Amino acid sequence: MPSNDSERQNKATVCLTVVVVGGGLAGLIAAYALSCAGHDVTIVEQKDSKPQSFGVSQSPPNMTRILNRWGLKPLLDREAEKCASLVMRNGRNGDMIGAMHFDKDFLHDLVADFLFLRTEKLGDLFQQLAEDEGVNSVTATVTDIQTTPSNVTIALDNGQTLLSDFLVCADGYDSPFRRLVSGEEELHDRRTARAYLALTFILPMDLVSQDEELKSIMDPAHWLVWFGSGFIFHTSAPDGGKNLSGTMLSNYNREILPEEEAWTNRPLEYWGIDLDAFEPRAKRLLSLVQVVSSRVLVQRPCIDDLVCENSRIVLVGDAAHPILPGNNQHIGLAVEDAEALRCIFSRIHDRDQIAEFLSAYEDIRLPRITSVVNYDATMNMMLMLPDGPEQDQRNVLLSQSMSHGDWDHMDEAEFKAVWGQELDVYTHDATDQVDDWWTKWGNMMSKKPQHSSSASSTSIPVLHRVSFIQPHSNI
To answer: Which residues, if any, are the signal sequence (predicted)?
Structure first.
């Protein structure tokens, strides 16, 4: 791991065999982090291709802090675009609602920068880092998973069988493996669940700049967010302002076809979006878009567990926290998951500790994940309020909270009353959280714990261990 902090480079004294199912960003990042902790990691991915690109990934301060800690700051300085300002506009009439400038004082409080990176570059980076760290890769489909209290057996459609000390499920928003952790089919009524259309696109800035009004509001250092009745539409400019990236999340009320629940490049007109619902500049920008990467997502509830009953399967990424694309913690939480696993499993010195260590991961991550996912869902609903008095009241409140535009002149109490939880999300330090947990509970972790009975006699919550076999052949 490229780092100048020798304490962060500690490796485990026992090398575990770990299989990661899912070769997207969350899987690559988790595999890289666990390999850096000293373990033998294999990624199983269904198709032989690098992660798909869906525009731009946001790296909020809590994510940037970890990437810097991993020694990646020079690369971020070269490849990422710093967000200098958040600009919020009324999506229907274009009126300015408010702006917040991320000046030095503001960033000092947040400890790290808010960055934008091309998703393709982020995927390429972690693909290369994982390969350099010695992570193995297998192209196959998982056909069967069996767990015991001591290991996991993974059968693949190519006839290969992998034996793992534990398995990391990073198979995305529609994860079929979540039920291996919950122990039963999820009770999820699609008829009443909210559905959203998510789409992203990239446009050359030269094309956008031909429209003088668009050019005047497309500052590469600005994160421009339009929101209105049933939609959030935001833009940023990666690649030094050479391209404009757009992402939209909107309510979806039509019948959902099976093929619409997969990311696919489609003409924008396929979705029948009413462009007249947007303010003139946003409408003109969307009229320049021909093809979007898009899909429909049915909102999924938070899961109550991150680790299976046998304490051999653990969820990370969208499988653990089904957060909607385009939101600023979409990748950030996956990076936090990986850092927590790295910090915990760099301390292991006996295979008999795996169950306790995975329980520690769940203790540490589950409250954080639940809080962020619920906050994100609440924020989406607030920004997508329908036209009417509630929306007007929201706009006034947001405008007042950002009325001065910079940290020096901000009414701190008023700002934190509206954005305090957002700041708490940004200032979270996943590494420190593990260290704090370890200071409190680590001395109670058995040096060579016994199974079930003795392990559960400690004050640290440990999951029950029972045999669970998932025979499905279509995973």
So the answer is: none
